[in-house]
Amino acid sequence: xxxxxxxxKVMPDGVDIDLDDxxxxxxxxxxxxxxxxxxETQPVAFGLKAIRMNLAREESMGGTDDIETAIxxxxxxxxxxxxxxxxx
Length: 88
Description:
By secondary structure, the chain is of the alpha+beta class. The chain has one domain (about 5-85): 2-Layer Sandwich (Alpha-Beta Plaits). Helices cover about 20% and strands about 50% of the residues. It has helices spanning about 20-30, 65-70, and strands at about 5-10, 35-45, 50-60, 75-85.
């Protein structure tokens, strides 16, 4: 079975959110069996920054719905957007 790699963009609630703390909470909320790769912060506008992260997991685990739901439930997260999904 193939592995799937995805890039996800997480928008915080506002500019006052500590992105390092938010990233740690995201890492602990990601469903088991999903590996976290590279992460970065990306300027959006007016001081707001988003977190972009690469995730990988087995294709048999299904789509990204469970990941999006887990991250969206975290306090301080405004929006979760899947930017890209591809097979390895």
